[in-house]
């Protein structure tokens, strides 16, 4: 596989430092302090970067997923990716990979419980960074996404962004808080905060689309080529140096929002890897996000659903 990928085929590389197993349980009614009978349950490998690689694979583009895994729970992630055919390289760390539980009540009200992840020793981080740096020679896009486990310094995304830039690899950064702030200073190609994350980054409220567009333009002014601020079911705003767009997703029955943003990043990365323009990437990413939103629990959308929704995405240029 390594020989094939290093012979001209560029891949989408994802890094997930704090992966998880997502378990979704459906109950008729959620009552604190009571025993519940679960009607149905799903288990999926999770973590923002892992979801990006899973969706990129579904859309037909080569990908490699990197990260930390721990214990028997980590093996669930590993085996699930093997079954899906998603290539991955994971560095083992002590403890157990985290478990996130979402309980869906009745027609669709979801309550989530996010577990803690294992700490990552310095030697494990050094090993992972070395692997990623080596594979950058086969990379077209590097996606750095998600929270950091204990023991990992907040500048890790900034370091990997600089390493990718030195090799001509585009970096998509999807993070929050200090890792996003420090990563932003390293000059990623694209960032995709949601409104709350953008508010924390800028230190002010973004009450409407005018404020959101101004925020996106301000972040472009800090050295990022493309800024997308997602607004959940209402779509997103995207800005570059001289242009901006309002992205309207197709109207679908939204069963879950888990993974929709990751699917959008994957669609953008696949379009860029194909050599398509940003507008086409926004359309493909939005269709992938909508396909995931109409999937139950923590499941991602299918390639067929993405293809069906793509013509229904509407993108308009903003003044």
List descriptors.
25% strand; alpha/beta; 319 residues; four-stranded mixed sheet
Describe the overall structure.
By secondary structure, the chain is of the alpha/beta class. The protein has one domain: 3-Layer(aba) Sandwich (UDP-N-acetylmuramoyl-L-alanine:D-glutamate ligase). 38% of the residues lie in helices and 25% in strands. A 10-stranded mixed beta sheet has the order 5-4-1-8-9-10-11-12-13-14, with helices on both faces. The protein is globular. The N terminus is likely disordered.
Gist of the model:
This protein is of the alpha/beta class and 319 residues long. It has helices spanning 2-5, 48-58, 71-84, 122-135, 156-166, 177-185, 195-202, 209-220, 260-274, 278-293, 303-309, and strands at residues 11-16, 20-27, 40-46, 63-69, 88-92, 98-105, 109-114, 139-145, 170-174, 190-191, 226-230, 236-239, 244-248, 314-317.
């Amino acid at each position: 596989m390594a020989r094939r990928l290093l012979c001209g085929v560029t891949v989408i590389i994802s890094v997930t430092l704090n992966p998880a197993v997502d378990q979704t349980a459906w109950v008729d009614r959620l009552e604190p302090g009571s025993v519940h009978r679960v009607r149905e349950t799903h288990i999926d490998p999770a973590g923002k970067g892992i979801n990006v690689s899973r969706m990129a694979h579904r859309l037909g583009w080569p990908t490699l997923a990197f990260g930390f895994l721990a214990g028997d729970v980590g093996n669930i992630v590993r085996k699930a990716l093997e079954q899906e055919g998603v290539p991955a390289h994971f560095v083992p760390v002590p403890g157990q990979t985290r478990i996130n539980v979402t309980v869906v009540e009745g027609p669709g009200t979801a309550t989530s419980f996010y577990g803690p992840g294992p700490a990552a020793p310095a030697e494990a981080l050094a090993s992972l960074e070395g692997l990623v740096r080596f594979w950058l020679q086969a990379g077209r896009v590097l996606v750095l996404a998600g929270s950091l486990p204990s023991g990992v310094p907040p500048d890790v995304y900034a370091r990997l962004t600089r390493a990718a830039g030195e090799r001509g690899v585009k970096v998509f950064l999807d993070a929050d808080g200090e890792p996003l702030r420090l990563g932003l200073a390293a000059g990623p190609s694209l960032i995709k905060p949601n409104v709350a994350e953008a508010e924390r980054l800028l230190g002010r409220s973004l009450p409407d689309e005018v404020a959101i567009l101004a925020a996106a333009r301000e972040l472009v002014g800090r050295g990022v080529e493309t800024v997308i601020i997602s607004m959940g079911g209402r779509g997103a705003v995207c800005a570059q140096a001289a242009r901006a767009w309002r992205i309207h997703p197709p109207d679908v029955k939204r069963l879950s929002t888990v993974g929709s943003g990751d699917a959008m990043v994957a669609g953008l990365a696949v379009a860029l890897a194909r050599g398509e323009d940003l507008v086409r990437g926004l359309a493909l990413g939005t269709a992938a996000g909508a396909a995931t939103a109409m999937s139950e629990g923590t499941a991602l959308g299918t390639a067929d659903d993405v293809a069906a929704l793509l013509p229904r995405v509407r993108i308009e240029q903003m003044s």
